[in-house]
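Hi,

I'm pasting everything inline rather than attaching a file, because the server keeps stripping attachments. The sequence lines come first, and each chain or strand is labelled.
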Amino acid sequence: MATGTADTTTGAARAASPTTRRVQASLARRRAAETRFRLLGLAAVIVGLGLVALLFATILTRGLPAFWQATLTLEVFVDPEIVDVPPAPERSAFANQAEYEEAFLGWQTALARTNWGRVLRNALLAYLPPEAADSGRAVEGLIASNERFELRALVQEDPGLIGETIVFQGLADANVDVWVKGNIDRSLPDDRLPLTSDQRAWIELLLEQGVLTQEFASALLFNVDSRSSPASAGLAGAFVGSLFMMLIVIVLSVPIGVAAAIYLEEFAPRNRFTDFIEVNINNLAAVPSIVFGLLGAAVFINWFRLPLSAPLVGGLVLTLMTLPTIIIATRSTLRAIPPSIRQAAIGLGASKVQTVAHHVLPLAIPGILTGAIIGVAQALGETAPLLLIGMSAFVAQIPTSPMDSSTALPVQIYLWQGNELRNFFEARTSAAIIVLLALLLSLNTLAIILRKRFEKRW
Amino acid sequence: MKLMTLTSALAIAAAGVLAAGSAQAQTRDTIQIAGSSTVLPFASIVAEEFGNAFPQFNTPVVGSGGSSGGLRQFCQGVGENTIDIANSSRPIRDGEVEACAAAGVEQIIPVRFGFDGIVFATNQSQEGTFDLAPEHVFQALAAKVPVDGALVDNPYTTWNQIDDSLPEQDIVVAIPASNHGTREVFEERVVLPGCETFDVITSMEEEAAEEACLGFRQDGRVIEIAGDYTETLARLEAQPQAMGVFGLSFYDQNRDRLKVATVNGVVPSLETIGSGDYPVSRPLFFYLKGEHMGVIPGIEEYATYFLSDEMAGPEGVLVEAGLIPLSDEQREEAIRIVEEREAL
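And the predicted assembly:
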């Protein structure tokens, strides 16, 4: 060994010294190791991308067809014999608002009692063979049952339609949609199919006449959830619920988070206490979201007595979840701003608050925005804590305030996934996922654009 | 400066949101319902139609959580942040009534509105058809079964080992977990009667017998499903040899994917369950909180609308969705209970 070392020191200049030989001998191995590592890394990226591609491909192939839906375009005669309601009350005929409202409610109730199903049935019969008239409810089974209320809403809007013939576009029943799209095995025996053989023959007839077509499913985006008429189920209620929650999250978590970050980064002394706070914030960011749900149920609902299923409570819970993300993002942005900016401001006589408010914060805003948007996007996709505060209920109304019951987009996906009409809701669920993914992607794109646009490099 | 204005604007908006919220919280005007996932589809349909038929009321909100979960929420107390109606696929238990009373809920108005059948079904791709009897189900599920007059560890791995008439198919059964009301009915109407056909069991003490009957095997052949029937269906699709326990209404919507088993030779259908020929059915209930009636608008109207001809009647919407209706007299009795607020 001793001689070997001597060789190394004396033979360093020579080309074929033992060290060089050893290095040369190991070169192939090292190169191989590097190639291996590079290939492994590449493989990891490819596997990751492949999985993402697979995910998107399955969701898109399943969900995209649901954006087009079997729709009936009918000439509907609003028969005054069936729609037998008095003329709508006029405001001028009543002494005060209360009396008018009572009369109007009475009129609405009369409209609600009308058999709109029969109006639609009669309209549909015009396109079907005469014997269909004696087939009981089979004819009504072709049209989504909530179209009754769509027709009623039209007439309520414009009572002049009574006695007129109008062109009415209504969704076909969910089973019709499933049949037309071929989402069910058509070769099954009759007793295992949801539609009778008569109904299936009528569908062919309606398709030939061009009455039954595939139209863009605006119901998916603009209707509320529905159980009695699955074809009409839509995301509007969940969307507004999510919107309320996100507003609450933004309004609460951005100011609190930014203020906390500025204090900790710019003002707080460095001591055990602030270290303790820092450790806790980092821990909070790692807490599983369901824990926040349990906390929300215990504190906001049982203690503060806030209502169940309300976006307000959901927003508060998600705020707790988003806060650490925003604090951490803001702090790292603040840290990245060179001290020279602060020193220059202080040198010119600015106070600490002025330095922060006039110089540091404006420079930090792009980073803060990015952090906030990513935090909000995370909150938008969160499901587990919402289930615990009752936001998984069936709600068939668009919430008008954060205190009304509502669901949220990811919860709606969960609910549709559990709907018993599997053939229809499998596609519908994927369509809802597409909507949610599109929202998340656009939020993330916004974050990237903001960063690119306002980012300053030092 | 700009920043200050921005933050104060945000603060004012936050205060506004909260204030608007608390002003509204004074009187909740939407009925809150929770409970059984078997009742959920029916209650949701009624809620939706109710909202459309009564312009003066909001559409009730229907939550899930299983019969036990719903009744637990129901018994949390009286007040606006507790639910008004609990859906249940089994009658309320004495312990629950006590819990309710302890929390101040004394007027529990029980409303029975129909029946549901419990069916056994396999993946439609399976060759064999099942004609089950309760004792087959017991022998497939129990941890210990009687063989030659003695209780031994369950030796059966395929159905035809239990009875020659059954197909040669692995025994794997997905049953509802104990948070479901279905589980109780399943045990009472299928497993116990099946168990009690054996002399070894009937000669035992009552408690020991029940333990022997309801002790299910732990070797992975009995799968407890805590979620809803979609989860059971997914299980059957992943594990085609498995058999699942479903509600009739769920099976009805997914006939193309499921193959139903007969019980004692009777095919489950609205007719056979209504007539009582099919042995496994259970009543469905909802419970009204008497204290909330008259405070939260529309509870009585919702309940009577639920029981009306259009909804739970023999030709109503719910029957189309798979509910087995009550007879007209039973329905009138239920309406009377609601109108007279006849509490337990």
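Confidence is low (pLDDT under 50) at residues 19-25 of chain B.

If the labels don't parse on your end, tell me and I'll reformat.
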